[in-house]
Amino acid sequence: MKTLSLLGSTGFIGRGVLKVVEAFPDRFKVEALAARSNSELLYEQAIRFHPRVVCIFDAVKARELESKLRPKRVKVVTGGDGLRELASLKCAQMAVFALVGINGLHALIDAIRHHKEIAIANKELLVMAGRIIRDLAKRNNVKLIPIDSEHSAVWQCLEGQRRNELKRLVLTASGGPFLGWTRKRLAHVTPRKALRHPRWRMGRKITVDSATLMNKGFEVIEACTLFGVRADKVEVLLHPEAVAHSMVEFIDGSVLAQLSATDMRIPIQYALTYPERLASGFAPLDLGCLGPLNFKKPLKGEFPCLDLAYEAERRGGVLPAVLNAADEVLVDRFLRGKISFLKIPALLSRVIAKAKTVKNPALREILLADRWAREEAARLC
Predict the structure, then answer these.
(1) What is the mean pLDDT of residues 69-94?
(2) Phi/psi of residue 33, each to 5°?
(3) How far is 375 from 21, CA to CA, in rounded Å?
(4) What is the pTM of this model?
(5) How many CA atoms lie within 13 A of 112 on its CB side?
(6) Phi/psi at 272 (5° precision)
């Protein structure tokens, strides 16, 4: 029985984690749940999974939740301190980070220091403070197990392989809903159109990032952190069918790929059960019925957000944090109809150009850069 603390239980990944837990009740026990604001769903999850403690960011909702859960003897905590309490909970062996945004940064650091198993889908943390998190995990002998389908695929392809024989990583991207669109058509993209992803059902922010390929850019930065490679060793290929989730090429010319149905429960389950694989009821991949699989290199300038991510990773320092923070603000403005779709990469480029580079930044400097980038992006809007 593996005990879990799940941070981000009401989001797309968090709900997927709980589906896996329900499928294997004899293998997993949920000890803690955390959500940002969805107190109604968090209450339902608490009744169903009987955790010891739950966390919600809104203090008012926390008081309401506390009165409702008091008869169930479930403790309710709130805010960043509450997340940190959940991340370092003694009775939880694994901390699962399925949050969106940077609120879980200190909680992740605490979980590593308490030698928890870490399963992570919270890409913002690895983008903004990847070097610090990687070094801390190494010092504490903690593995960072990826949940994202692309990084899980790379993780699986690298198992048992010699890292000095690695040539490059290949991350695949569906291309989102606007693959092949001209700039003229993109000028008229609405939030409603951007939220229609052809392959995945995800949260609003990550769906827009998939449409701009900013999400794939963040995954490039993540891959550099998780697998210890430079940006020039990570390639992105457009693969609309989203069947080959990523690939690894070795120096002898061999390429290993991980293929599966487009179902996030598959990489979630592997992250929770690693190094075991458990039989599941997921739809099998019928290779005989797939039809052709297409792969294409994105053209230079075709996806400017992807280019900006490579630039930020190459230059390093606080720039990945700046890119992440500014993108969060600009996507929010787009979803609220305040800026156009094409303004997202245009304004991101302006923020990056104005950012001061800091080599080997401390956590405080990263957080200051994050704050500056949010203010600057808002000002440019």
Answers:
(1) 95
(2) -130, 145
(3) 40
(4) 0.93
(5) 22
(6) -75, -30
Instruction: Report the amino acid identity of residue 97.
Output: F
Per the listing, tokens 């104005």 go with 354
Q: CA–CA distance from 114 to each of 35, 91, 94, 124, 265 (Å)?
A: 22, 12, 10, 21, 27
What are the structural domains, with CATH classification, of the chain? 2-120 (3.40.50.720), 151-262+283-380 (1.10.1740.10)
Q: What is the pLDDT of residue 200?
A: 66
Looking at every residue in the chain, the average pLDDT score rounds to 94
Q: Give the model's confidence band at 216: pLDDT under 50 very low, under 70 low, under 90 confident, else very high.
A: very high
* 150 neighbors 246 (Cβ within 8 angstroms): yes
The C-alpha torsion from 10 through 12 and 18 to 24, rounded to 10°, is: 180
Quick one: how far is CA 38 from the chain centroid? 19
| 98 Rama sector, left if φ>0, alpha if ψ -120 to 50, beta otherwise | alpha
Q: Given this model, what pLDDT does residue 97 score?
A: 97
Nearest to 170 by CA among 252, 258, 241, 240: 258
Task: Provide the 8-state DSSP code for 208.
Answer: H
Instruction: Check pLDDT > 80 for residue 119.
Output: yes
Query: Which ranges in the chain belong to alpha helices (H)?
Result: 12-23, 39-49, 59-69, 79-87, 105-113, 123-139, 149-158, 183-186, 191-194, 204-212, 214-227, 265-273, 304-315, 319-335, 343-354, 363-380
> Other CB atoms closer than 10 Å to residue 80's CB: what's the count?
14
Q: How far apart are CA 123 and CA 138, in angstroms?
A: 18
For 42-65, write each residue's pLDDT tens digit.
999 999 999 999 999 888 999 999
The pLDDT tens digits for 310-364 are 999 999 999 999 999 999 999 999 999 999 999 999 999 999 999 998 889 999 9
Q: Whole-angstrom Cα distance, residue 17 to residue 131?
A: 27
